[in-house]
Structure formats: C-alpha cells, structure tokens
Design a protein that fits this description.
Largest sheet: 4 strands, mixed
Number of helices: 20
Radius of gyration: 26 Å
C-alpha cells in the first residue's frame, strides 16, 4: 500500500460538532428525560397532598351533649380526648391516623424523613453512576422509587410508611441527579444551558400537573399508588436512551461510545459527516493521571483550586436551597385552594427560567448566577428596612427574591455540571445536592428568626444569598468550553480565565504511528445556539489527522 489508512482523532465535543448538538436523536432523549424529571416532582410534593390538614369536629368523650363540639380544635390540644368526626371528603393519612392538634408535627416529620432520604441518596450513592454507568443507576433507582413509594400506599402504620418513604427518597435522589447529568452529557455544547434550564422548567410543570391530579383523588392511598405506578412507563427508557458516551469514553470504553455516537449520527441524518476512519481521542493525560491521582470524590480535594471550587459550590447550593424553600414557606399564606396555590408556586418559576435561558448564553454562566443571587439577596435585604404599612412592596420584593433564586438555582445545576470533570461529575453533583438538602431542612429554622425581630429572617437570607453571589465570582466561566474530563482540564479553565482567552489551544495529541506528515482539519464551533454566525478564531479547535 502506498498510502496508509488515515485516522481522525475526535473528542466527544468534536463528534457533536459533526453530527449535531441537538439533533433528532438528542431531542428524543431529552424529551424523555424531561418527562422523568417532571415525574420526580410528584414524589417531592406527595406529602403536601397525602398529609393535608383535615377539618373536623371534636366531641367530648364523656358523651356530654350540653356543649357544642369544637371545630378544628381538640380538648386540651389532645386528639385522644376527642370523639372525632371528620368533615372533609378527602381522606389524608393525617385523618386516618388522627395526626391533628399536638400530633400534627408528625405530618411535617414525614416530609423531613423523605428529604433525609434524598440527602442520604445524594451523599452515599451519588457516585454510583460514576462507577457502574448512568443508565444502570437510573433504572435501578427508578425501580426502587416505584417499589418503595408504591408499597407505602399499603402501609399499616405511620412508622412503616415513613420508613418506606425514606427509602423512596434515597432512590428518587438518584433519579433526579442522573436524569440531569443525562440532559447535559447527551447533547452538545451549544445546547447544554438550554437543556439544563428547560429540565428545571419540566420540574415546575410537574408540580402543576401533580396538583391537578391530586385534586381529583379521594384518598391518600390512591394518590400515593397512582403517583408511584405511573413511573412504570419509564421502564422502557433503555429501549430509547443509550448510555452516556461521555461516561463510556471516561472509562476507556471508546468502542462502545463510538457505536452510540454513530447511531445518533444515523438518526440525525449526519452519518456522512463523520470521517470514514475515526476514533475517540483521550484528552490530556487522563490515563496517566488516573494512576497518580486519587480517584472518586478524592479528586475534589486533589488540588487546592479544585477544593476551593467545591467549597464555593457547596455553600452556593446550600444558600440557594435555604432561600428557595424559605421564601416559598414564607409566602405560603396566599390562602384559597391548596391545590391551586401549590400549582401556582411551581408554575411561577417558569418565567424565571425563561429569563435565564435568554441571557445565560450571552453573558455567561458565572455572571448570570452571580447577578441573580445578588438581585435576590438585595431584594430580601430591602424588606427589613421597609415600614410595616408597605405590605404590597414587601410582597413584590419577596416575589422578586423568589424569581431570582429560582433562576439562580437552575443555573447552579448547569454551571456545576460543567465544572466537575466527567469521571466524578455524578459524585460532585451528589455532594452539592446534599448541601442543598441541608439548606432546605434548615429553612424553617431560619424563618423562626422572624419571632426574634420582624423580617429578620429575610435579612439573614438576603445576606447569605448576596455573599454567595460574590463568592461565585471565583468560579471559572464555562460558556463555550468543552466539558472537563479531568482535573487538568479544570486547571486549564482557571488559566484561561486569568488570560481572558477561550480554549483555542485545546488540541489533541498526535497518534504515535511513526508517520511524520499531518494534515489539520479545523472545526468552527459556535459558542451557543443563539450565537450562530458569530464564530471567531477563539472557537476554532484543531483536530490532528494522520497519513
């Protein structure tokens, strides 16, 4: 042969440049993941509806008929001293087990136990998907959620139900985490921000849908069972969604990753865009690095800069969650129908996500995140200094804070997913998710500051949020950059931030075949789907081709 076979080295991002960042196949994958993410909202809201406060009449147990029954009150605040008659048609577990008056706290305890399960799942099992794969983890977690939450519908006692819900929370945490990671790894760089925020919108839509579903149910057991078994339809996901090619490539399973990417190319009608002879490039020195650096979560503390980024993100997620749930609870006095109020509390987040989608690919992840957090923090701080009579202004400021924190929360997911390297992305997302759950669990305690000084809770939330916004300025900008595969890639982001450049020097090492002559192919990569036609030399990535 006078001419050797020409080989092309392509990274995952380079392949997406050729087959489409958000083609037909990725749209199908993403739509299915959005439906799954919206279904997770059912379980997060389940206790709100299955534990609804019942209306009741309390008759004295001594049988005396001289006194009128107490309405929605108990004798000495003790349900055991009452002969109860419930007047609501809907039967919640609060009415089934008489969790009223001084026993009412047990309803909130069930939700806290579920949140504890979510925190446990994110902390203990968050890294499972980095070891056995995204798809396997997702399906096992989905089965666990369906089973444990479904069995809780038949629980004979409150303790059994709480235990089953705790286990369901552990599994649901993995479903939420892995579905989001999927939404980022199965699409190209151009559409990561759109997909990351849109999947948050699907969760908000899920809140509205579940509120409507709950409004037509007559018992908590029926609602719980339907909520759980409705997830059975998602068991067909492996027939339509492949394993993440990014994860496969990070594990050295390049042939499997290549097969999946070629299948996506065929469904996108872009198979002809791929070179005849190509292989997935191993970026940097990831193989050597894996032999010398600590693996798993240990990578997060393997370098002072990486540790700093991790700590900032942990605090940022904690503050986002504490402020989000704090403002939600503080604004829960809307009154009216519980189903309508809950639906609106979810749907009101959609405008915030729309605004975030419009600016995140123009001014970047870091400035968008910092801006929303500073605006939300400032709005909360202003509440403290307003006179008592300015009720409407306080409501508007609280709403501004809620919209801002909703937007920053959705951006947090995208920014963190683009900072953590592929090898530990699910582990890293699990750790920051734990911080978020802690923030959500402490939110009611922060609100108790209002009993010490009126509106002091808003001041505390405002200070925490504003400080988090300032700290986030230390995070690297990831707009238009390939997803990091290793710690070295994260350090490269820091260096690029210092020089103000893009990754135009992100080149892949030539294959050591002994051949000397090379040709170079340049791929023009737009920074986002909203900036097509504005490609500059900073967006060029060189690929080495071998003779």
């Amino acid at each position: 042969m006078s001419r050797s076979t020409r080989r092309y080295q392509l990274t995952i991002d380079d392949v997406y440049d050729k087959i489409g960042h958000f083609g037909f196949s990725q749209k199908v994958y993403f739509l299915l993941v959005c439906f799954l993410h919206g279904w997770c909202a059912f379980h997060q809201l389940l206790t709100v509806f299955v534990g609804l406060d019942p209306t009741f009449k309390c008759f004295a147990r001594d049988g005396s008929s001289k006194n009128e029954p107490l309405i929605n009150q108990c004798i000495e605040d003790t349900p055991q001293k009452c002969s109860l008659t419930y007047t609501t048609e809907y039967k919640s577990f609060a009415s089934e087990w008489n969790l009223i008056c001084n026993e009412k706290y047990k309803v909130a305890l069930v939700q806290s136990i579920w949140m504890g399960g979510v925190m446990t799942g994110a902390l203990v099992l968050g890294g499972v998907a980095d070891v056995i794969g995204r798809l396997k983890t997702l399906m096992m977690a989905l089965l666990g959620t369906i089973a444990f939450e479904g069995f809780s519908a038949f629980a004979p006692t409150l303790v059994v139900m709480a235990m089953l819900r705790y286990l369901g929370g552990i599994c649901c945490a993995l479903v939420i985490l892995v579905s989001f990671v999927f939404s980022q790894e199965l699409v190209g760089m151009d559409w990561r921000s759109f997909c990351g925020i849109f999947i948050a919108m699907s969760f908000a839509v899920g809140i509205g849908v579940f509120s409507a579903l709950a409004s037509v149910m007559d018992t908590w057991r029926t609602l719980t069972f339907i909520c759980s078994v409705s997830g059975i339809v998602f068991l067909i996901l492996p027939c339509y969604i492949p394993e993440s090619p990014r994860w496969l490539a990070s594990q050295g399973r390049n042939d499997e990753a290549k097969e999946i990417l070629e299948g996506m190319a065929r469904r996108n009608g872009k198979f002809s865009n791929l070179p005849t002879n190509w292989e997935i490039s191993v970026t940097g020195n990831s193989k050597d690095e894996s032999d010398k650096k600590p693996q798993g979560v240990g990578l997060l503390v393997s370098h002072p800069y990486v540790l700093l980024l991790t700590l900032i993100q942990i605090y940022s997620w904690f503050v986002n969650s504490a402020t989000y749930y704090g403002l939600t609870i503080a604004a829960s006095n809307l009154g009216g129908d519980a189903y309508v109020s809950t639906a609106l509390s979810g749907l009101i987040e959609i405008p915030a996500c729309v605004v975030a989608i419009g600016i995140i690919d123009r001014i970047g992840r870091r400035l968008t995140l910092c801006g929303f957090m500073m605006i939300g923090g400032s709005a909360c701080l202003c509440i403290q200094f307003l006179p008592v009579q300015f009720v409407n202004v306080k409501t508007l400021l609280a709403l501004c804070g809620k919209l801002s924190i909703s937007a920053s929360f959705s951006v947090c997911y995208i920014h963190s997913a683009e900072i953590f390297p592929t090898a530990i992305r699910n582990s890293g997302m699990g750790i920051v998710s734990v911080a978020a759950r802690v923030g959500g669990m402490l939110a009611p305690l922060i609100l108790m500051l209002g009993d010490v000084l009126p509106n002091l809770q808003f001041t505390a939330l405002g200070i925490m949020t504003f400080v988090a916004g300032v700290l986030n300025l230390k995070l690297p900008e990831t707009l238009g950059q390939p997803m990091p595969e290793s710690v070295a890639d994260i350090l490269a982001l820091r260096n690029l931030g210092k020089t103000g450049c893009s990754i135009k020097d992100y080149q892949y090492n030539k294959l050591e075949t002994g051949e000397e002559e090379t040709d170079t192919e340049v791929i023009m990569r737009p920074r986002s789907p909203f900036m097509r036609g504005k490609i500059t030399s900073e967006d060029q990535v060189c690929l080495i081709e071998e003779e």
